[in-house]
Write a structure and sequence with these properties.
Length: about 150
């Protein structure tokens, strides 16, 4: 077991069928996992409750890229990675000034204690695009890597 795993910092997640998996090195000492329950229709219909830690590291592995679609809407500044096989959206990314940022869906966690998740409602309706991108640069995970599974 790695030091991060023994400290409860590594969080594993996946879509339902396992085509998309992720490992998040949480890098926080507190037990709480703050999450945002977005109220937009897409997130509500897909169970999107998002968390991020700007100091964290995210590794996403995809078994079959042909079975993952990147869906975007509204400002078209974020890609919702939807597994076409099972319909789960485990990860959202945003490419900002050449750097990839991400959030993960707490409903896709495989091994984190659900009692640690502290979800609060969130609405980004009416947020100006520049402010939205700046918020993502400050709050989303900035160390993101996609790999073949």
């Amino acid at each position: 077991m790695t030091d991060a795993a023994s400290a409860g910092r590594l969080i594993h997640g996946s879509c339902h069928c396992g085509n998309v998996t992720f490992e998040l090195d949480w890098k926080r000492s507190d037990d709480a996992i703050p999450a945002r329950a977005c109220g937009c229709t897409f997130c509500v219909k897909h169970g999107g409750v998002w968390t991020s830690n700007p100091a964290g590291k995210l590794r996403v592995a995809v078994r079959d890229r042909a079975r993952v679609s990147a869906y975007n809407f509204g400002t078209r500044t974020a890609d919702f990675h939807v597994c076409a096989a099972c319909g789960v959206v485990p990860v959202v990314t945003s490419l900002i000034e050449g750097r990839l940022y991400a959030v993960v869906n707490v409903n896709a966690f495989d091994d984190a204690d659900r009692a640690r998740v502290k979800a609060a409602p969130a609405s980004f309706e009416g947020e100006e695009t520049g402010a939205r991108l700046e918020r993502r640069k400050q709050r989303w995970i900035g160390d993101v890597r996609f790999e073949e599974a």
